[in-house]
């Protein structure tokens, strides 16, 4: 069974496996809002009945850092070293997230979401077919 056809209970079970894998790797995670002062992995479920259904992981900057970078973007300073460094950091963190998940038998892929370029979609986890 692919996760886009999994039951809500199965999606919640997989979200728990993902959270456990991140904790085991020492990666801070949460389910919702961006924290004010630290970055965190966010583990979410899309319960929709379309092809977007599934379990997802994204790296979220602190709210303060996000707002600071967005200010640079709004000012048109797209080549600012802070923006470029944030992109490099996000790519490195995604590699760390995927390695932690893989170590727990969980496979993920780029969700190919233009609005969330570093979003990972969980493809399979122990106990899924």
Characterise the protein shown here.
- The structure is a single chain.
- It is built from 3 helices and 5 strands.
- It is an alpha+beta fold and 129 residues long.
- Strands 1-2-3-5-4 form a 5-stranded mixed β-sheet, with helices on one face.
- A hairpin with a 7-residue loop joins strand 2 and strand 3 (54-60).
- Helix 1 (8-24) packs across helix 3.
Topology overview:
Blueprint (H helix, E strand, L loop, with lengths): L7 H17 L4 E2 L9 E7 L7 E7 L2 H12 L6 H23 L3 E4 L9 E5 L5
Summarize the structure.
The protein is 40% helix and 19% strand.
- The oligomeric state is single chain
Helix amount:
40-55%
> Structural class of the helix and strand makeup?
alpha+beta
* Number of E-type strands: 5
Strand content: 15-25%
Taking pLDDT < 50 over at least 5 consecutive residues as the criterion, the unreliable ranges are none
Instruction: Spell the H/E element sequence.
Output: HEEEHHEE
The count of helical stretches stands at 3
Q: In what order do the strands lie side by side in the largest sheet?
A: 1-2-3-5-4
Shape: elongated
User: First CA to last CA: what distance?
Assistant: 5 Å
What would you report as the Rg, rounded to the nearest angstrom? 15 Å
**Major β-sheet profile:** 5 strands, mixed
């Amino acid at each position: 069974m692919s996760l886009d056809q999994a039951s809500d209970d199965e999606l919640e079970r997989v979200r728990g496996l993902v959270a456990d894998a991140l904790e085991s790797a020492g990666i801070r995670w949460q389910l919702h809002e961006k924290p004010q002062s630290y970055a965190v992995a966010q583990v979410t479920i899309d319960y929709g009945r379309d092809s977007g259904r599934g379990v997802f992981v994204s790296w979220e900057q602190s709210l303060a850092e996000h707002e600071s970078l967005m200010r640079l973007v709004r000012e048109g300073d797209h080549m600012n070293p802070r923006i470029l460094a944030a992109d490099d950091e996000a790519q490195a963190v995604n590699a760390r997230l995927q390695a932690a998940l893989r170590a727990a038998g969980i496979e993920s892929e780029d969700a190919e979401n233009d609005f969330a370029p570093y979003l990972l979609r969980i493809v399979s986890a122990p106990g899924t077919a």
